[in-house]
Write a structure and sequence with these properties.
Largest sheet: 7 strands, mixed
Order of helices and strands: EEEEEEEEEEE
Radius of gyration: 13 Å
Shape: globular
Helix content: under 10%
Distance between the termini: 40 Å
Mean pLDDT: 95
Strand content: over 45%
Oligomer: single chain
Number of helices: 0
Length: 123
């Protein structure tokens, strides 16, 4: 089992930045893929970014590429999502998730989920 706890959400203005953190416990993440997802009210959960823990290979959804950066800290068993140039349409609950599969990016491939952290971007 992997337990995930997100933090770092909040209320910001358009153009601001936020960094989300996701601390994993229960086991080491070598061999896992880690992902960030978001879900806005009335919408389906969507992929934001993903990273293969061992290789560091990253994936970004088209609308986030260039503004968001996913990274990980092996020593802290933590994955981050740096979000820059935030827009009102980025408002959502952001979730961290872990998958035993390598190179996956879609929500249904992820086995373990955090509780989510709210990000609200005002115009």
């Amino acid at each position: 089992q992997v337990q995930l706890v997100e933090s770092g959400g909040g209320l910001v203005q358009a153009g601001d930045s936020l960094r989300l953190s996701c601390v994993a416990s229960g086991r080491t993440l070598s061999g896992y893929s880690m992902g960030w997802f978001r879900q806005a009210p009335g919408k389906e959960r969507e992929s934001v970014a993903a990273i293969t823990w061992s290789s560091g290979r990253t994936y970004y959804a088209d609308s986030m590429r260039g503004r968001f950066t996913i990274s990980r800290d092996n020593a802290k068993n933590t994955v981050y999502l740096q979000m820059d140039s935030l827009k009102p349409e980025d408002t959502a609950v952001y979730y961290c998730a872990a998958s035993r599969l390598i190179g996956v990016t879609t929500p249904h491939h992820f086995n373990f989920w955090g509780q989510g952290t709210q990000v609200t971007v005002s115009s």
